[in-house]
Amino acid sequence: AQSVTQLGSHVSVSEGALVLLRCNYSSSVPPYLFWYVQYPNQGLQLLLKYTTGATLVKGINGFEAEFKKSETSFHLTKPSAHMSDAAEYFCAAGGGSNYKLTFGKGTLLTVNP
Amino acid sequence: NAGVTQTPKFRVLKTGQSMTLLCAQDMNHEYMYWYRQDPGMGLRLIHYSVGEGTTAKGEVPDGYNVSRLKKQNFLLGLESAAPSQTSVYFCASSYLGLLMGNEQFFGPGTRLTVL
Q: How far, in Å, CA of B74 to CA of B76, rounded?
């Protein structure tokens, strides 16, 4: 069974600082990996995804993530945080089944002025 | 395109009442999903559908029923609501499931409170 672990339910950074949100997955098959963002009282919006090919994936709003198979990780980064990045971020993994996407429990990002 | 829409946005029920949540998508997607989101739990799959006329159980199907009579609509029913079903419900759709890494598109959610 697939599982997704997000380290840290709450991350707080200063505006302009590096954002690093951690995600580890367990899978017996090559995974598809996703990061979604959820702004308050809204649905989930896709930030970026890894399917095959280049392991460094660029997404919207300046975010990127690197797939590291040896570490079973897919951490999300952004060089400089903006106030508008404050939201909850979800890592998700799929593969082995055509329908099941397993979500992590989410990381709430707070950006301080 | 409206994408994925959900009706209603908010609802308060009393224990034992029934209701239906409607999800509609205009992207001609084959797969549709219902999730519930609870604090600290992430998203958990309730039921899903791989095409018109099909439905299947997800992780937490008990207390819910679904129907997909039309390709663009996916209905989630609560026959006898319980306080444990207080949650935010999200509908999602995708073109062909996870084939080739197709992502899921989410609706804005329905916030349900059961008293």
A: 7
